[in-house]
Structures are given as C-alpha cells and as structure tokens.
Fold this protein.
Amino acid sequence: MTTRIRRALKLWRRNLDVFREYYLASVIGNIGEPIIFLFGLGLGLGTMIEEVNGMSYLEFIAPGVMAVVAMNAAAFECTFSSYTRMVEQNIYEGILATPMSLEDIVLGEVMWGATKGVISSFAVLLVLIVAGIFHEYAAIPLIVINMAAIGAAISGIALCVSAVAKSYEFFNFFITLFIGPMILFTG
C-alpha cells in the first residue's frame, strides 16, 4: 500500500470515528427522504403506471433511487461537511501540520464521500430487501461497487466546489444547478 493511500486512510478513519458518534442521525437523514420518494412514487404513482419491462414501477425506480442516495450523500458530505472541516473547524490546517499533504486530504475525503454514498444506498437496499422488492442477492457486490464509484465521482466534484466556495450559500448553485438536473434528467 502506498504512503499516500495509508495517509488518506487515516483521514478516512478520522471521519469514520466522527460518523460513529452521529451515525443514527446521519443514516436516517440520508435514507428518510429517498424511502419516502421510493414508496411515494413507487406505490403512489406506481398504481397509475402499468408494468415497465415486466416489473412494477416501484421495482423499476428502485435502482435509480439508490443511485440518487449515493450521489446526495457524497455531495452533501463533500460540500457542507468538508467546508465545515476546512473553514469553521480548521481541521485541515491541523492535519497539514502533520506529514499529510493536501493530496492526502483530498483522497481521504473522496474515499469518505464514497463510503457515505455506499452506506446510505446500502441502507436503502436493506429496506428494499425487507420490503420484498429486491431479490437479486448475487448482484449486491456489483451494486456496492457502482455506488462507491458514484460516490467517489460526485465527491471529487463536490470537493472542487467546496474549495472555491465563499460561504455555505454557494452550495445552492451546486445542488440546484448540478445535482438537481442529474437527478431529474439522467436515464
């Protein structure tokens, strides 16, 4: 394992330790809205829509909802949370006083954003399993890899936005003009 990855994992571990203190609020916040959308659209709107490719509308939208959850969790983690660590708490300044570099911090934050995406989308997947909607258990490793890739990609973009943001209000541009259209207009 390279030195950069080892150092990035230390930052990832630091974020995990903080997450363990507040995981319940974080997970509930990250999956509450998607579950409402999933069942609101799937069961509400789904009653008016015939089957889509041989599956119910709820089954049809479930993978998209899991992708949105991974994207949102990573986006919010690497905008609001990273900005707080950078500007309000000055955590990155303290970390930079150690042998860690800015690149180590960025890699650690991207890894953490991807992890948050996986945790949140996996929680939605568990709800789908318990509700009897998901049955393809062999696909779970592939789903986890996909959610990690989505989380990492969005985390990198969100960190770039955080680096140039002048205040929390600037994240409205990112969420409204980038994340929103991705949710609404992607296939």
